[in-house]
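hi! just following up on the protien thing from before. the input was this:
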Amino acid sequence: MVQTGHRFGGSSVAVYYVDGNAGDDGDDGGLSDPWETIAHAFSKVTDGTISHGGEIRIMATGNYTIGTTLAPGWNNIEVLITGANSSGDVDGTQAVLIGNVGGSSPMLNFAAIKGERSMWANLHFDANDNSQHCVESTSNNHYINWVNCRFSQATSHGVNRTGANYWNITKCRFDNNAHNGLQNTSTSYGIIYDCLFDNNGQDGADSGWRETWARSVFYNNGTEGLVCNTSGSRVLDCVFDSNGSDGMIDEGTTIQGLRMNNIFSNNTHYGVNNANNTDCVSFNDLFFNNGSGDFDTGQGQLTALFNYTPGASGYNPMFNDPANFDFTTGPTFEGHGLGLLSPYKLFGSTADDPGINKFVKTETVSVF
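and the predicted 3d structure came back as:
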């Protein structure tokens, strides 16, 4: 029997389940009789069985080997595709999808004007050093949201986007892909927030213009942490540490961009490499121990730096344990009080996130 849940302001919605071990595509998709394959669940959105507000819960206990590229066939349907625990509850547990499509194919592909208005959450796309990309969008696909997903082990890019989009990406990880964690060759008006780009063979991310990058970490990538066309873009409260070349390449040429409150530390080349005649304002950025210096001014860049002094180069952030993604700054970090971000451990326990369990109720007060 199909379950109902409450989402989107309390409205009752249909919830369907996929269990790669115990499911059967001949059943009706309820919790007690789930479907077996993700592709079958997708077909039920395309044929209208699952409509606006519906949920597909992929139970993490199932086996999901993706041998044929998944391809959403619907458009403009607000559907949630999410991982769930063994009980079918959504609690942040990620369902793992293993790539086995091989060759030049992605695990999940958005064709032109497909999948718009969808949300994807709690999914780990493991390309298994077999699939070209975890996710690919080959055209202008707008308004897609990603929350707590992971994109790893692709033979090329973790996520590859070649069209204009409005994708919002929150609390996601891009790691151990052969080329870039995230590749975007066109305009994007989305927000990338609280994400981790680490240990990719080339860039953590290579971005188009107009995006907002906020409170994200670019760590130990093979070349650049972030290649960013900063024309109309904002890079805010991010950490760029221990990347194989520059912390960030700033390559915008039109429309003023903004960098603010970022830390560029321990990168092999420059903290920021201004690749073009960049029209960008940098406010309150901190640089430490970058091999070629704080920033490259060799391209006739037009960057204006505010509230930055060379003395800031001596401010070692003393991250607690970067190898385990704990970017909490040390207690004697001289940058405290300068308005910089306060990094913390990414993808740790909920107590490590400053937005969760920060305040604990310890007493009650009564007037009676």
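Helices lie at 38-46.
The chain has one helix and 32 strands.
cheers
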